[in-house]
Amino acid sequence: MTKLCIFDLDGTVLDTVPSIAYYANGALIKNGIEPIEEGQYRYLAGKGIANLVEGMLRFRNSYSEELYARVYHDYDTAYNADVSYKTSIFAGLKEVLDCVRERGIRMAIVSNKPDFAARTVVDRLYGKNYFDYVTGQKPGGILKPDPSVVLSVMEQFDARPADCVYVGDTSTDMLTGKNANLYTVGVLWGFRDRAELEENGADAIAATPAELLELILNR
Q1: Among 64, 133, 176, 213, which is most exposed with the fewest C-beta within 10 angstroms?
Q2: So where are the chain's domains?
Q3: For 22-81, what is each residue's pLDDT tens digit?
Q4: What CATH class is the domain 4-15+87-217?
Q5: How do strand 164-168 and strand 4-7 relate by DSSP bridges?
Q6: What angle do CA 196, 199, 201 make, to 5 degrees?
Q7: 59 in Cβ contact with 67 (< 8 Å)
Q8: Contact in structure between 80 and 116 (CB atoms under 8 Å)
Q9: Distances (CA, A) of 102 to 63, 98, 148
Q10: Which pLDDT score is estimated for 33?
Q11: Which pLDDT score is estimated for 31?
């Protein structure tokens, strides 16, 4: 029986692509660089802000250390000023998570998004303390797919691998779940497609929130 669900954030519990694209393109334009089509951010995001900004600049063949520093600062400053702008909960997902909570299953989020942004956007969209625990990348912290933070969360909730389900939407998430020896579910409403999720170790795929609920309750 599932006792703890650990979720990714971007593309899993929140639709953040429009927000990321808006602030990232704003930072590019401010620095004289052509913006990037919104859909491309599904492939640029997910590995932390440093990798996002570097990926943006390399996509536009504009990388330099000086430009990286400026774009990073402009993106981070603008995003943190209003982290929930253009962000939404995926249709049908809140109802599913309500059902998970009602069954007494604990819920945590482990994200590669900076910690302040992760906690703030979840509180604003879901409500404070809706999830039992939320953490993002802290300064100098380890990024997924390293499982260290996931394992720490499991220890905090006294949960064994057999008690847990890990849910995410990218190869990084599938590798994180498997590195923690967890039953790992890939969702198709996020950043990446079925092939990427299956190729990187997904134990199951959920095409809809309703399918995710069934996988969690029947684990």
Answers
A1: 64
A2: 4-15+87-217, 17-81
A3: 999 999 999 999 999 999 999 999 999 999 999 999 999 999 999 999 999 999 999 999
A4: alpha beta
A5: parallel
A6: 110
A7: no
A8: yes
A9: 48, 6, 28
A10: 98
A11: 98
pLDDT at 3 over 90: yes
**CB 3 within 8 Å of CB 159:** yes
Task: Tell me the CATH number of domain 17-81, given options 1.25.40, 1.10.150, 3.90.1720, 2.40.10.
Answer: 1.10.150
- CB atoms under 10 Å from CB of 73, counted, come to 12
Integer Cα distance of 195 and 74 in angstroms: 34
User: Which residue matches tokens 């956007």?
Assistant: 121
User: Which phi and psi angles does 99 have, rounded to 5°?
Assistant: -65, -40
What are the pLDDT digits (tens) for 139-192?
Answer: 989 999 999 999 999 999 999 999 999 999 999 999 999 999 999 999 999 999
Q: What is the 3-state secondary structure (H, E, C) of the chain?
A: CCCEEEECCECCCEECHHHHHHHHHHHHHHCCCCCCCHHHHHHHCCCCHHHHHHHHHHHCCCCCHHHHHHHHHHHHHHHHHCCCCCCECCCCHHHHHHHHHHCCCEEEEEEEEEHHHHHHHHHHHHCCCCCCEEEEECCCCCCCCCCHHHHHHHHHCCCCHHHEEEEECCHHHHHHHHHCCCEEEEECCCCCCHHHHHHCCCCEEECCHHHHHHHHHCC
What does the pLDDT read at residue 1? Answer: 87
The pLDDT value recorded for residue 133 is: 98
Both tokens of 68, joined, read 């990286």
Q: Tell me how far apart the alpha carbons of residues 27 and 21 are, in angstroms, rounded to a whole number.
A: 10
